[in-house]
Design goal:
179 residues; mainly alpha; Rna Polymerase Sigma Factor, Chain: A; Arc Repressor Mutant, subunit A; 2 domains; 0% strand
Length: 179
């Protein structure tokens, strides 16, 4: 296909539509994928893979781009996890966060707390991890989370409350001492 045939077929318009949708929605998609695997790079890769597949898509026109991209990205994350025969690691960024502590003892205590929290998060189900990550990592409102998870804001508030309670229970079981 020549460039003039591509232009006549609407390819540049489609490319611009995809680019515009990417600019407007990639951060939200990244957050959703991050809530699934808690790996920022893998979440970014899932966004990129979903948009590449959208660009290459030759089948039926996609009616709901957001839903289609979510499904493709989620499937890609599951495939990667299966291939590596392990799930995504939880919150690797916690290891790098020192909270301004320069005292080696404070740094060691912070590292131990981070390990306990990561371990407790690993015991939560995916929905509980997802709402906690969206709330505390992304600072999303219940309404934003509800739109992503296809439920009401009230349902999100209940899920968030249960997830916090369950996380606290797990941390107590592990001997976590809150200051």
């Amino acid at each position: 296909m020549t460039s003039s045939e591509s232009a006549a077929a609407g390819v540049p318009a489609r490319n611009e539509e995809i680019a515009c949708f990417y600019r407007e929605n990639s951060r939200e998609l990244w957050a959703i994928f991050y809530s699934m695997c808690s790996d920022p790079e893998r979440a970014h890769d899932a966004v990129q893979e979903a948009f590449v597949r959208l660009h290459d898509h030759q089948g039926e026109p996609v009616r709901d781009l957001r839903a289609w991209l979510l499904r493709v990205g989620q499937n890609w994350l599951r495939d990667v996890a299966r291939r590596k025969s392990s799930g995504c690691s939880l919150l690797p960024g916690l290891d790098d966060f020192t909270g301004g502590a320069v005292d080696p003892r404070q740094t060691a205590e912070l590292h131990e707390r981070q390990q306990q929290i990561r371990s407790a998060l690993a015991e939560l189900n995916e929905d509980d991890r997802r709402v906690l990550v969206m709330k505390y990592s992304m600072d999303w409102s219940a309404a934003q989370m509800a739109a992503v998870m296809n439920c009401s804001a009230a349902a999100i508030d209940m899920r968030l409350s249960r997830a916090r309670r369950r996380l606290a229970e797990i941390l107590v079981e592990q001997g976590y001492q809150h200051e």
